[in-house]
Amino acid sequence: MLTSAMSAPVAPGLQRGECVVLLAGADGSREGGALLVLAAATTTAATVAFVVRYSSGLLQVTVTDEDCVRLQLPPMVPWPAASGGLTVSVDHAVECTTGISASDRARTIRALAAPDSTPATFVRPGHVLPYRIPTPGSLSRGNISSGGGENAALAAASLIGACGLGPHAAYAHLVTDESAPHLATIEDGYRFAAEHRLDVVTTATAPRELIGSIS
């Protein structure tokens, strides 16, 4: 298992469609949040099934302003121009059944990252939630389980961007596998990563590499 702020060995796993555990807390605190993050462009059905099994099950995909215009993704609710937020949910329009299976969602996620996708590529509403990335500038070191979703979206997109995989990250909040499940803390994230031999990336230990790295 790799524990790193941002290292080249993280990228190969993401490029193969594997997920990593992304941890962030306020000012380096271990009381933060944990995300399962994967590169949208290389998402596989197997990885989606794994992420859904151990997360909230709500898969979000970061998209840019240009994506929202090109794919005609209006906001789910109105948002200020400089902020981010959820757009209408989508499913892939071709070769999908219910849209909720791992293979269907993986196809939808990859299409959101594909430059040749068009509005007709998707049906609305669906089972994947695009999240428009807030205007880049600074990534809060705050808890990625808070911040109205913007901290999580920016952290996930920044990780994928820093690995040279563009701004499209698929992610979900890690949930503990207990009798009373809850959103995972940083400590939970470390334990989960060790159990499943997943790479760990933290924003607290290397904010310079993650802040403003969206490309």
Note down, in words, how this protein is organized.
This protein is α/β, with parallel strands linked by helices. It contains 7 helices and 9 strands, in the order E-H-E-E-H-E-H-E-E-H-E-H-E-H-E-H. It has helices at residues 10-15, 45-53, 65-70, 102-113, 150-162, 186-196, 207-210; strands spanning 3-4, 20-25, 32-39, 60-63, 85-86, 90-92, 122-132, 169-173, 200-202. Strands 1, 2, 3, 4, 5, 6, 7, 8 and 9 form a 9-stranded mixed beta sheet that branches. A hairpin with a 6-residue loop joins strand 2 (20-25) and strand 3. Helix 2 (45-53) crosses helix 4 (102-113). Mean pLDDT is 81; it is low at 1-9, 26-30, 137-141 and 205-215.
